[in-house]
Specification:
The protein has 99 residues and is of the alpha+beta class. The model has no long low-confidence stretch (mean pLDDT 91).
Length: 99
Amino acid sequence: MDDSTPLPRASYPRIARLYRFQWEAAQNAYVLLFPEGMVQLNAAAGEILRRCDGKQSADAIIADLRAAFQSDAIDADVEAFLRSATNDGWVEWRETVTP
């Protein structure tokens, strides 16, 4: 997904099956675990990815983040992160809710 591709905001992002998302107390951060290692996430990335459960559309995730952080100016940043996470293979998209 390149920067010119519209984000599928009505679709449902979820953490790709290769990764496990969890809070790591020792790191005091959310992390993505995968067979070759671990990615420590910054606070913003953790907040976005913890909502990528396959049950919320990208639109719903963005709305939830707007409310949580009381900001209407985060859409572009969330979209950019989701695009990057998709390109990195961390996030996959479904057209319907994941059971």
